[in-house]
Predict the structure.
Amino acid sequence: MKKYLLFLMGLFVTLFLQAQIFSDYLADKTLRIDYLFTGNASKQEICLDGLSSLPSWAGRKHHLSELPLQGNGQIVMRDITSGTIIYRTSFSSLFQEWLETDEAKTVTKGFENSFLVPYPLLPAEIEITLLDPRRNIRASMKHVVDPSDILIHQKGNAHITPHTYLLQNGSTDQCIDVAILAEGYTQKEMDTFYKDANIACESLFSHEPFKSMKKCFNIVAVASPSEDRGVSVPRLGVWKRTAFNSHFSTFYSDRYLTTPRVKSIHDALAGIPYEHIIILANTEEYGGGGIYNSYTLTTAHHPKFCPVVVHEFGHSFGGLGDEYFYDDDVMTDTYPKDIEPWEQNISTRVNFASKWEDMLMKDTPIPTPPSESTKYPVGVYEGGGYSAKGIFRPADDCRMRTNEYPVFCQVCQRAIQRIINFYTE
């Protein structure tokens, strides 16, 4: 009993100190920072595009200087006077994916990116860094934000997009706030959108660990209307006027559905507490995309909608990598073989101890034969991260590999649970 009381006292002190650190440096508001990532395969730059203030902060108030995952980029906010890191977060971006394409070798482009950080009480230095696949710095930028700057756009106090909560388990400090937005739904189709959003919500919470940790989430459906029904399908010559200008054929991959208009997503959410984003596209075409700490975008009326929305949220929320690969050894060079990927469910075995080595049964064969998958539910199965050789996955099959497999593997479940705990404990 005495040990239990000491534990509770220690926990109370820790939480009090974390809250005190937050209130010493940060206000209960959100600073939205819009950037343009520009360049090509040879040279990249970061440009500040704008600053906005949102009326509340829905993110974490603890683990402020820590990262749940390394990501492909990071943002660090420091108090100017003391140099103290008062907030840090990580992300990935569509721009960095594009840099690995052939087009980036001959064309220079710019991509919108928007990030949320807690609002500083005093002038703060923001440093944003983009990393390449070898973890080298590709581009970085520092700028100072003065919270009293009159050119910081005040948003979210009026003209808030209509919305309804599908799941509300607590306040924003206690729960992870996920917003589900409508893309390609006209104003008359919002009843359909709310039904689709409910299906997405039910699908997500039918999977562990989301199912057993459901109390950690708030889910809000946001009725963002489009002029046209559906989304753009370039390979068919179909272009629509939609809320977020999403389209298939990203990087000329038919099923890759993304949007270049990231600011419009965040404008639609101004005034609504949110940390993570799911966008549902009103189309029967197959496809989707998920970018870590950016958004999930998936089609709502294809037969595989339910597994795809969960898979893509595994990317955008959990920072999980794709576990599928190409049998003909087609390579994308996304993952160098002599570097350990930051995603927790794929490994080159360069630093396997940082992954799921502790979950292996004694004498697990490496590589683990797929024929032994029943005996070794957690193994070292070769093939993942788009490559048939040199990259390993933890299970023969998983929600992060195929749409047909009904669950996340044990390693993916642990990775997601750790993320949830990071945000809520």
Remarks:
- The CA atoms of residues 314 and 357 lie 21 Å apart.
- The first strand starts at residue 26 and ends at 39.
- The radius of gyration is 21 Å.
- The first helix runs from residue 2 to 25.
